[in-house]
Write a structure and sequence with these properties.
The protein has four helices and eight strands; from the N terminus they run E-E-H-H-E-E-E-H-E-H-E-E. The chain has 181 residues and is α+β, with helices and mostly antiparallel strands.
């Protein structure tokens, strides 16, 4: 699915552009996700776990853009990738009423309204698709993200104890949230 360019005004007055990721930005996208994973313990991977090549990232962008069941939105600020999000619509008769979402934003762009702007678009896409339940997961301690999710009506429905083990040996629970549309 393709998301048409949409300018948004950030809380600091700058303009950001929300749009589908572009193949020519594959290297920027890889650098962004590796940086993002190194800035917080709240994403599912460490930076060194990203072994994707630029060519593989290009192929992923092409698949994302051509898939009728996935919408990816990337936020660009001054031509650089600031964050991205994705919604994946489930198939099958028993699960097509559900969609899963994910989001990540670079630390330099936290608290500027990017997360809220992207969530508005994800909710709109789900509503347009006829989705009944939106789902996401987050790691224990990620209070900023939890606040955003709750602001948009997501509620915790389950918890997976010790779902993540950090490099220092500590464990973090994973919370599963849903929003009914």
């Amino acid at each position: 699915m393709i998301f048409e360019d949409k300018p948004i005004t950030l809380k600091d007055g700058r303009t950001a552009i929300l749009k589908s990721p572009c193949v020519e930005d594959a290297e920027k996208l890889l650098n962004y996700i590796k940086t993002s994973c190194g800035e917080t313990e709240y994403l599912a991977r460490y930076p060194e776990e990203w072994n994707t090549t630029v060519e593989q990232e290009e192929a992923w962008v092409n698949r994302l853009r051509s898939s009728p069941d996935t919408l990816g939105i990337t936020c660009y600020v001054d031509g650089e990738v600031a964050g991205n999000c994705e919604i994946s619509f489930r198939g099958g008769m028993k699960t097509s009423h559900r969609a899963t979402i994910a989001i990540a934003i670079l630390k330099d762009y936290w608290n500027l309204g990017i997360g809220s702007a992207m969530f508005e678009e994800l909710v709109a896409a789900a509503q347009n698709r006829g989705t009944e339940i939106m789902e996401l997961e987050f790691i224990e301690g990620n209070d900023r993200a939890r606040h955003l999710y709750e602001k948009f009506g997501f509620r915790v429905v389950s918890e997976k104890p010790n779902a993540f083990k950090l490099k220092d040996g500590t464990y973090r629970n994973e919370f599963y949230m849903q929003k009914y549309l």
